[in-house]
Design a protein that fits this description.
5 strands, 46% helix, globular, nuclease, ribosome biogenesis, hydrolase, EC 3.1.-.-
């Protein structure tokens, strides 16, 4: 029973998977998408779901600091709704405020170059989204 965490952007989707017990999140990959051209990477996501027996998807919800949902949040909701329709798997939205900044800080502390950070930041944010959700389930 694996879960998938997604950090949905306008150009990339960071993907993380949980272990089978739902304790830890590991970064898997970053999928290139193009919102403007309606290229969303759903085929690639479907392959990951099938290959890893994913039973739930956690989509990062980028809320504004005051808790309202702006254009990026609406884009994440659209993405999640499409995933539910296409794959008949429950989608949970997880407040991702500050996850990208936290991921950036971790990578800076690891002294990673800007070029390398750019390649892994979305995947790292997806890990933080999924791990936050997994931790909340243990404490809930």
């Amino acid at each position: 029973m694996r879960m998938m965490g997604l950090d949905v952007g306008s150009k990339t989707v960071g993907v993380a998977l949980s272990d089978e017990l739902g304790w830890t999140a590991q970064g898997l990959e970053t999928i290139r998408i193009n919102e403007e051209e309606n290229v969303f990477g759903f085929e690639q996501i479907g392959k990951i779901i099938k290959d890893n027996d994913v039973t739930k998807i956690i989509v990062g919800m980028p809320k504004n600091m005051n808790g309202t949902i702006g254009p990026r949040g609406e884009a994440s909701q659209f993405y999640g709704t499409e995933l539910e329709k296409l794959f008949s798997i429950p989608v949970v939205y997880w407040d991702e405020r500050l996850t990208t900044m936290a991921a950036e800080r971790v990578l800076l502390e690891a002294d990673m170059s800007r070029k390398k950070r750019k390649k892994v930041i979305d995947k790292m944010a997806a890990v933080m989204i999924l791990q936050g959700y997994l931790d909340s389930q243990k404490n809930g």
